[in-house]
Protein backbone atom coordinates (compact mmCIF):
# COMPACT_ATOMS: atom_id res chain seq x y z
CA UNK A 1 0.00 0.00 0.00
CA UNK A 2 1.39 3.43 -1.00
CA UNK A 3 2.39 5.85 1.74
CA UNK A 4 -0.09 8.75 2.09
CA UNK A 5 1.13 12.07 0.69
CA UNK A 6 2.11 14.60 3.35
CA UNK A 7 1.95 18.27 2.47
CA UNK A 8 0.96 21.60 3.99
CA UNK A 9 -0.02 25.00 2.63
CA UNK A 10 -0.24 28.14 4.79
CA UNK A 11 -1.47 31.41 3.31
CA UNK A 12 -0.05 34.65 4.72
CA UNK A 13 -3.61 35.89 5.28
CA UNK A 14 -4.39 32.99 7.64
CA UNK A 15 -1.39 33.34 9.98
CA UNK A 16 -1.97 33.86 13.71
CA UNK A 17 0.48 36.32 15.29
CA UNK A 18 2.09 36.45 18.72
CA UNK A 19 5.23 38.11 20.15
CA UNK A 20 8.84 37.22 19.38
CA UNK A 21 9.84 38.18 22.93
CA UNK A 22 6.66 37.84 25.05
CA UNK A 23 8.34 39.40 28.09
CA UNK A 24 8.43 42.77 26.25
CA UNK A 25 4.77 42.66 25.20
CA UNK A 26 3.82 45.34 22.66
CA UNK A 27 7.48 46.51 22.53
CA UNK A 28 8.40 43.16 21.01
CA UNK A 29 8.30 42.40 17.28
CA UNK A 30 5.39 40.24 16.19
CA UNK A 31 6.09 36.58 15.40
CA UNK A 32 4.28 33.61 13.88
CA UNK A 33 5.58 30.08 13.38
CA UNK A 34 5.12 28.76 9.84
CA UNK A 35 6.46 25.33 10.79
CA UNK A 36 7.92 23.90 14.00
CA UNK A 37 7.63 25.52 17.43
CA UNK A 38 10.14 28.21 18.44
CA UNK A 39 9.52 27.52 22.14
CA UNK A 40 10.72 23.91 21.91
CA UNK A 41 13.93 22.01 21.15
CA UNK A 42 13.63 21.66 17.40
CA UNK A 43 14.00 23.39 14.05
CA UNK A 44 11.51 26.18 13.28
CA UNK A 45 10.71 28.62 10.50
CA UNK A 46 8.84 31.77 11.50
CA UNK A 47 7.75 35.18 10.29
CA UNK A 48 8.81 38.23 12.31
CA UNK A 49 7.45 41.74 11.72
CA UNK A 50 8.85 45.05 12.97
CA UNK A 51 7.32 48.51 13.28
CA UNK A 52 8.88 51.40 11.40
CA UNK A 53 11.86 52.77 13.32
CA UNK A 54 12.27 49.68 15.49
CA UNK A 55 15.73 49.28 17.03
CA UNK A 56 16.48 46.63 19.61
CA UNK A 57 18.80 47.05 22.58
CA UNK A 58 22.04 45.06 22.32
CA UNK A 59 21.38 41.39 23.02
CA UNK A 60 22.33 37.82 22.16
CA UNK A 61 20.50 34.62 21.28
CA UNK A 62 21.11 31.17 22.65
CA UNK A 63 20.99 29.67 19.14
CA UNK A 64 22.12 30.67 15.64
CA UNK A 65 19.48 31.92 13.24
CA UNK A 66 19.16 32.75 9.55
CA UNK A 67 17.08 35.66 8.25
CA UNK A 68 15.66 36.68 4.87
CA UNK A 69 14.04 40.07 4.30
CA UNK A 70 10.52 39.82 2.86
CA UNK A 71 9.47 43.45 3.14
CA UNK A 72 11.09 46.71 4.28
CA UNK A 73 14.74 47.24 5.18
CA UNK A 74 16.65 45.57 8.01
CA UNK A 75 19.98 46.19 9.76
CA UNK A 76 21.54 43.43 11.88
CA UNK A 77 25.10 43.84 13.16
CA UNK A 78 27.37 44.62 16.09
CA UNK A 79 26.06 47.48 18.28
CA UNK A 80 28.77 49.88 17.04
CA UNK A 81 28.68 48.89 13.36
CA UNK A 82 27.68 51.37 10.66
CA UNK A 83 24.17 50.82 9.36
CA UNK A 84 23.87 48.54 6.34
CA UNK A 85 20.24 48.31 5.28
CA UNK A 86 19.22 45.01 3.71
CA UNK A 87 16.21 45.16 1.33
CA UNK A 88 13.79 42.45 0.19
CA UNK A 89 15.54 39.23 -0.80
CA UNK A 90 18.67 39.85 1.30
CA UNK A 91 20.00 37.16 3.64
CA UNK A 92 21.89 37.19 6.92
CA UNK A 93 23.03 34.84 9.69
CA UNK A 94 23.33 35.63 13.40
CA UNK A 95 25.61 33.30 15.40
CA UNK A 96 24.56 32.15 18.83
CA UNK A 97 26.13 34.18 21.62
CA UNK A 98 27.22 37.19 19.53
CA UNK A 99 26.21 40.64 20.77
CA UNK A 100 24.20 42.58 18.16
CA UNK A 101 21.28 44.88 17.46
CA UNK A 102 18.43 44.55 14.97
CA UNK A 103 16.78 47.61 13.41
CA UNK A 104 14.04 48.23 10.82
CA UNK A 105 13.76 51.19 8.45
CA UNK A 106 10.74 50.59 6.23
CA UNK A 107 7.15 51.57 6.92
CA UNK A 108 6.36 47.84 6.99
CA UNK A 109 9.09 45.31 7.82
CA UNK A 110 8.76 41.54 7.58
CA UNK A 111 11.37 38.77 7.65
CA UNK A 112 11.52 35.00 7.56
CA UNK A 113 13.65 33.68 10.44
CA UNK A 114 14.86 30.09 10.67
CA UNK A 115 16.54 28.11 13.45
CA UNK A 116 17.87 24.55 13.37
CA UNK A 117 17.37 24.01 17.11
CA UNK A 118 15.43 25.71 19.87
CA UNK A 119 14.01 27.15 21.89
CA UNK A 120 14.55 30.67 20.51
CA UNK A 121 15.56 32.93 23.40
CA UNK A 122 16.63 36.57 23.76
CA UNK A 123 19.32 37.04 26.40
CA UNK A 124 21.34 40.02 27.77
CA UNK A 125 24.67 41.03 26.26
CA UNK A 126 26.54 40.17 29.47
CA UNK A 127 25.96 36.50 28.59
CA UNK A 128 27.76 36.84 25.22
CA UNK A 129 30.00 33.99 24.06
CA UNK A 130 31.91 32.96 20.92
CA UNK A 131 30.61 29.73 19.40
CA UNK A 132 33.15 29.81 16.53
CA UNK A 133 30.67 30.88 13.86
CA UNK A 134 30.86 34.23 12.08
CA UNK A 135 27.95 36.40 10.91
CA UNK A 136 27.05 37.02 7.27
CA UNK A 137 25.19 39.97 5.76
CA UNK A 138 24.42 39.28 2.09
CA UNK A 139 22.76 42.15 0.24
CA UNK A 140 20.57 41.01 -2.64
CA UNK A 141 22.76 42.94 -5.11
CA UNK A 142 25.73 40.70 -4.23
CA UNK A 143 23.99 37.40 -4.98
CA UNK A 144 25.10 35.22 -7.91
CA UNK A 145 22.20 33.62 -9.79
CA UNK A 146 22.33 30.41 -11.86
CA UNK A 147 19.85 29.54 -14.61
CA UNK A 148 18.80 26.32 -16.31
CA UNK A 149 22.07 26.15 -18.25
CA UNK A 150 24.02 26.09 -14.95
CA UNK A 151 21.85 23.93 -12.67
CA UNK A 152 20.43 20.50 -13.47
CA UNK A 153 17.55 21.14 -11.07
CA UNK A 154 16.10 23.99 -13.16
CA UNK A 155 14.75 22.59 -16.42
CA UNK A 156 12.20 25.38 -16.93
CA UNK A 157 13.34 28.37 -18.98
CA UNK A 158 13.83 31.63 -17.10
CA UNK A 159 14.09 30.06 -13.62
CA UNK A 160 17.15 31.04 -11.57
CA UNK A 161 18.56 30.01 -8.18
CA UNK A 162 21.25 31.05 -5.72
CA UNK A 163 22.67 28.83 -3.00
CA UNK A 164 22.68 30.33 0.53
CA UNK A 165 23.82 27.70 3.03
CA UNK A 166 24.31 24.00 3.77
CA UNK A 167 25.34 21.05 1.61
CA UNK A 168 23.86 19.69 -1.61
CA UNK A 169 24.81 16.12 -0.66
CA UNK A 170 21.78 13.83 -0.53
CA UNK A 171 20.27 13.80 2.95
CA UNK A 172 21.96 17.07 4.00
CA UNK A 173 19.96 20.24 4.58
CA UNK A 174 20.50 23.33 2.46
CA UNK A 175 18.78 26.59 1.66
CA UNK A 176 18.51 28.52 -1.59
CA UNK A 177 16.53 31.29 -3.24
CA UNK A 178 14.70 30.59 -6.49
CA UNK A 179 13.33 33.16 -8.96
CA UNK A 180 10.34 32.31 -11.13
CA UNK A 181 9.80 34.64 -14.12
CA UNK A 182 6.59 36.52 -14.79
CA UNK A 183 4.16 34.24 -16.58
CA UNK A 184 5.76 31.03 -15.29
CA UNK A 185 3.55 27.95 -15.24
CA UNK A 186 5.07 24.70 -14.08
CA UNK A 187 5.82 22.34 -11.23
CA UNK A 188 8.26 21.90 -8.39
CA UNK A 189 8.88 18.15 -8.12
CA UNK A 190 10.41 16.81 -4.91
CA UNK A 191 11.00 13.43 -3.29
CA UNK A 192 12.75 14.90 -0.24
CA UNK A 193 11.82 13.87 3.29
CA UNK A 194 11.91 17.62 4.05
CA UNK A 195 10.88 20.19 1.45
CA UNK A 196 9.78 23.66 2.56
CA UNK A 197 9.17 26.79 0.48
CA UNK A 198 8.35 30.35 1.59
CA UNK A 199 7.20 33.09 -0.78
CA UNK A 200 9.67 35.95 -0.28
CA UNK A 201 8.57 38.32 -3.04
CA UNK A 202 5.58 38.41 -5.39
CA UNK A 203 2.62 36.03 -5.43
CA UNK A 204 1.81 32.65 -6.94
CA UNK A 205 -1.29 30.66 -7.75
CA UNK A 206 -0.73 27.28 -6.08
CA UNK A 207 -2.40 23.93 -6.62
CA UNK A 208 -1.63 20.33 -5.68
CA UNK A 209 -3.25 17.02 -4.83
CA UNK A 210 -3.68 18.22 -1.22
CA UNK A 211 -5.49 21.50 -2.02
CA UNK A 212 -9.06 21.96 -3.24
CA UNK A 213 -8.87 24.32 -6.21
CA UNK A 214 -6.30 27.07 -6.63
CA UNK A 215 -4.83 29.02 -3.73
CA UNK A 216 -3.29 32.49 -4.01
CA UNK A 217 -0.06 32.67 -1.98
CA UNK A 218 1.42 36.11 -1.32
CA UNK A 219 4.73 37.04 0.35
CA UNK A 220 5.06 35.27 3.70
CA UNK A 221 3.04 32.22 2.60
CA UNK A 222 4.41 28.70 2.94
CA UNK A 223 4.09 25.25 1.38
CA UNK A 224 5.85 21.98 2.14
CA UNK A 225 5.90 18.26 1.43
CA UNK A 226 7.41 14.97 2.53
CA UNK A 227 8.23 12.28 -0.01
CA UNK A 228 7.18 12.18 -3.67
CA UNK A 229 5.12 15.29 -4.38
CA UNK A 230 4.35 17.78 -7.16
CA UNK A 231 3.61 21.43 -6.39
CA UNK A 232 1.99 23.25 -9.33
CA UNK A 233 2.74 26.98 -9.52
CA UNK A 234 1.59 29.81 -11.77
CA UNK A 235 3.02 33.35 -11.67
CA UNK A 236 0.99 36.34 -12.93
CA UNK A 237 2.39 37.98 -16.05
CA UNK A 238 3.01 41.24 -14.17
CA UNK A 239 5.61 40.17 -11.62
CA UNK A 240 8.58 37.93 -10.82
CA UNK A 241 8.44 35.65 -7.77
CA UNK A 242 11.20 34.75 -5.31
CA UNK A 243 10.94 31.60 -3.18
CA UNK A 244 13.17 30.44 -0.35
CA UNK A 245 13.55 26.65 -0.40
CA UNK A 246 14.87 24.50 2.46
CA UNK A 247 15.33 20.83 1.61
CA UNK A 248 17.51 17.76 2.16
CA UNK A 249 17.37 16.36 -1.37
CA UNK A 250 17.42 17.50 -4.98
CA UNK A 251 14.27 18.90 -6.57
CA UNK A 252 13.29 19.85 -10.10
CA UNK A 253 11.48 22.92 -11.40
CA UNK A 254 10.00 22.18 -14.79
Automatic annotation (TrEMBL):
This is DUF4437 domain-containing protein. It comes from Methylophaga thiooxydans DMS010. InterPro entries: DUF4437, RmlC-like_jellyroll, RmlC_Cupin_sf. Pfam families: DUF4437. Coiled coil: none annotated.
